[in-house]
Amino acid sequence: MSTPAARTVDTTRHPSWRRRRLDPDHSLGLRLTLAATAAFLVLVPFALLALLVLGAWAPLHRLDTAITDALHGHAVDHPAWVTLMQVWSAVFAPMPLRVVALLVVIWLLRRQARRLALWVTTTMVVGGLMGPLLKLLVGRDRPELLDPVARAAGYSFPSGHALNATLAAGVLLLVFLPYVGSWAARVTLWVAALLLTVVTGLSRVALGVHFASDVLGGWLLGVAVVAATTAAFTSWRAHTGLRPVRPARDGVAPEVERHPDAT
Question: TM segments (predicted)?
Fold first, then answer.
């Protein structure tokens, strides 16, 4: 018969699943727990939106149609507006943004910031793969307009432009925040990241190739991916003894700016 002391020893020797998930000494479990929690909190509204799209919820369909019709009417009457939106949509399309991310990865590798380069790569690749997969799963058709000002192939939900703009903006913001010192510079960087994300998404609705809910879905999914990978990366930092950071203020690896070989 086991004694209470023996049972205590056994409990210590074999900690519960919950303890292992939250124990800093079990770094992988802790990183996965934080990443899953961060992703879950943002994926909840995305999942709800996807279910409404799949179920063809009438109020959402009416709202999408009203926004599309209003913006399409404005586009038909203003060719210069269409040209501006087409240029913006082309410059900040998924492929050019991926090229920019690749250049950032190469730059980080040259600075010996291998783990930070891996974070950038993981964020862009995971998000980039999830978008097309979800498009196939949802299978939503694009808006059908009598006099379209632009065309796009493939399914509609979520918007790939909105998703990749969110991923790229998050990556660039969190990598380069440590390089701006003043409050004004930080605000400028945040505004630039928000403009990249918001205007790129809105350009797709303005051109009539996406519904507003497609763009909202792309934004939510992009934020979820960035939140999950950032949680995993900051958890690794804590485990290796680096000082805690607030990513929204300090970036994900502020030590790289001062010591290139720190990560």
Answer: 28-54, 87-109, 116-138, 158-180, 187-207, 219-236
